Amino acid sequence: KILIVGCDPKADSTRLILNSKAQDTVLDLAATRGSVEDLELEDVLKVGYKGIKCVESGGPEPGVGCAGRGVITSINFLEENGAYNDVDYVSYDVLGDVVCGGFAMPIRENKAQEIYIVMSGEMMALYAANNIARGILKYAAGGSVRLGGLICNERQTDREIDLAEALAAKLNSKLIHFVPRDNIVQHAELRKMTVIQYAPDSQQAAEYRTLAQRIHDNSGKGTIPTPIT
Hints:
Elements: E1 2-7, H1 26-33, H2 41-44, E2 46-47, E3 53-56, H3 67-80, E4 89-94, H4 105-108, E5 114-119, H5 123-140, E6 146-153, H6 160-170, E7 175-179, H7 184-190, H8 195-198, H9 203-217
Parallel strand pairs: 1-3, 1-4, 5-6, 6-7
Antiparallel strand pairs: 2-3
């Protein structure tokens, strides 16, 4: 049983699981009703493909307020209303290239046990991955959170897998999986589906299943990162 908590102001973490446009976010619904206290769990938690539970924290209007607050508000609401009681996995989809304190809430408050950094072989992606490792290091020393590993989303840059493996080694971690680039992802997105739902027998679906199995098998094997300074 899986719960996905989207922690990105774009609120697009769960839409393909729900086969819909972006779902109503905790912050949007709270603004409409008056406050978070006026919400029920079923207002914000939707069930999608294969029974996956989905929540989007949302964020303020562009240019107004702090998006990180949405993450904090949402996670507190979910805890108080028992959203975590009946799940085996909770996945927080966190904006990686912004290391503001609010987005780091799942790390900071020991909500997350393992962090997987999705990156590519592009220079800015490598830079962002190292920055995230610095954030994890800050909280790993005093808490239980660990770096699970890197997941490389292929962008077809030169020697991409070599770069990903080299960075993982520098960070005292490992490359969990190298996900090849395939246009079937865009075909599935246009139909508001994940690849596993749209083309379950495709090679790309097999790649995602391999990734899921590797994350499952890697449970408890995370490390304290050694970021490049």
